[in-house]
Amino acid sequence: MKMTIVGAGAIGGMLGAHMVAAGHDITLCDADRAHIDAIRASGLTIEGPIANFTVHPTAIYDDELTGQHDCVMLAVKSHHTKMAASLIAPHLSSDGVVLTVQNGLTLDTAAQFIDPRHIVTAFINIGADVIEPGRIRQGNIAAFYVGEPLLNEVTERVNRLVDALPYAKSTTNILGFLWGKEAYGAMLYAGAVSDLSIADSLSDPRYHDLMIAIAREVLDQAPVKAEGFDGFEPDDLEGSLERLAAFNAASAKTHSGIYRDLMVRRRPTEVADLLRDLSGPLTTHIGRIIEAIERNERTCEVANLDLANAYYRAHRLAEPLHAIVHYLEAPRRAPTGPLHGYQVAIKDIIAVAGTPLGNGNPIDMTGPPSSTDAPIVATLREAGADVFATTSLLEYALGSPHPGVPEARNPVAPALVAGGSSGGSAVIVAVGAAQLALGTDTGGSVRIPAHYCNVVGFKPTYGHLPIQGITPLAPTLDHVGILARDVATTILGYQALMGSPVTHPGSRRPRLGVVRTQLATDLLDPIVAQAIHHALDLLTMAGYERIELAPSPFDRLELAFDPIVGYEAYQIHGPLLAADPQHFGEETARVLGQARSITQAQYLGAIEEKRAASVELLGVFDTIDLIVGPTSPMVAPGQNPSLDTPEGYLEGIMTRVYNLTGQPAISIPIPGSRLPVGLQLAGARGHDGEVLCWAEEIERILGES
């Protein structure tokens, strides 16, 4: 057979070399002049475990293609299809045939220049790489099918091509093979963002569900029955991973062509075709990461695959619980740092550049994107964190969801709420999509969702973390807080945000202060009571000293909270309420409207009571190290109670005290309860490191019971 191959790279060159060796008249045509020059000078060498030989075909530059040709193979990268097809079209004879041997769905692009009746399509899974100009390594022998894309039959011209091509077979469903390769190829794209081999990325249990979900996303878009090959079976994706890993482990081609384009050849990939040909969130996330690597904003590393896994888990597990507001594609961040490889979510009341500051309000959520990050978000990026999603909250963090914004549901029991107001941040950590999330805490809005969702929630000392760039609620009480899967991760996040290590208290055990009235069984839900008393008993058995505290300063601080938060919230949101009451949800507008009646004298009196009672409460740290008790007397309810209802008052009765005093406080899960229960630990102001380190030790003791 006489054939001109346009695209003499890995696949076109490998096939052409075998055809030359079999006695066919082959001309290789390529835009890579160094490659063509090397073939002209020394021939084309195929090497590797399959074959080792050199042939001397005719080799021409792309601008040297002349005359009329009866048989042309189009074997360029898919994103060069338009250029190659426009080159071929004037030189194709009236009854000529073009065989496309490419990854991707390129028929429509080629048909813009070549009558589709002249096009035969091939599917190929043989692995090959250009090692240097004039040298190609063939890694394996694999599936290679040729068929008519417009016909469900094997024609004479297909048979002629199959007879001439190495390893080729005919098929009546070539589009089915191409869609099967699209699904498999999407998994290869995902693996290529890391530095893992193909076999390792497919066999690593961390990415098992991600890979299956990516393949399924593609197969669900296939307009034909997808075909299996080389261990890939569309009806058995679970088993396909094991078979494909073994198949690729046996190949001399360890990494995909996408990876080689990114990290070896440093040239554009076919990612634009991936994003054009396929829809679906996972392939889009992968494509955006590849684009970022092409722009030198990232490098191929496992952290990118972990990011893709975070997107997958967020879509599958957090999104159905209404925890996600926006996804941030291939987020900007420093290439190294203490949070490198950590995926972090941000409560949508904290400014994140490029996305609206939503505040749990549907009007704000459709507003203009923030132009800059809040300082705390910028610090996360500088620490190497992937800030990849924003999370849902109660409207303006004031205690009620807007009726137009679904409230986050509990990952342990979806019929229950995740808690307010940082519920979305608690959920995304609880389902394992993010290792860390930021929330805000004015009266318990980090610790209460942590208590409901079985994660850790930490509110540092007031002022330790910046609140600039965050929509305020009550500035004298507003804190930024951290939600995490465990205390160790919380410590890591806090250290990164502070820019310094925490101070460890050494081996001494803290003296625990307990407020007897907080443990009264008529105050606590029975599930909470059982868990808290069990936890305190475990700590007593572990040698922790318990000291009873007088309730007086706690009671005084309780009375100061509502006037302060109400007055300050109205000063911030009252003007908008007056100008546009419909901007707010009904419950938020009602609570703000009631706060209008708080006078400045009442506010200043509450501020003075807060000051005096804080001095009294903080004085107990002369004799204790931690105040210990329930995070909330309630387990997660079915609906978030409004701030000014009896249920709303009860929910935060044990957390808001520490917003008034500014003390560091953390909620850690107590294992074993039917519904999640948190144990709250509060320390002296400024002693955040000690609180965190003791919390890690107590977490261990509770976990060993």
From TrEMBL:
Which SUPFAM superfamilies does this one have? Answer: Amidase signature (AS) enzymes (SSF75304), NAD(P)-binding Rossmann-fold domains (SSF51735)
Domain named Ketopantoate reductase N-terminal: residues: 4-148
Please indicate which superkingdom the organism of origin belongs to. Bacteria
Q: Where is the Amidase domain?
A: 333-692
Q: Which InterPro entries match?
A: 6PGD_dom2, Amidase, Amidase_CS, Amidase_dom, AS_sf, KPR_N, NAD(P)-bd_dom_sf
Do you know which Pfam families this protein is assigned to? Amidase, ApbA
The name of this protein is: Amidase family protein
| Organism expressing this protein natively | Ferrimicrobium acidiphilum
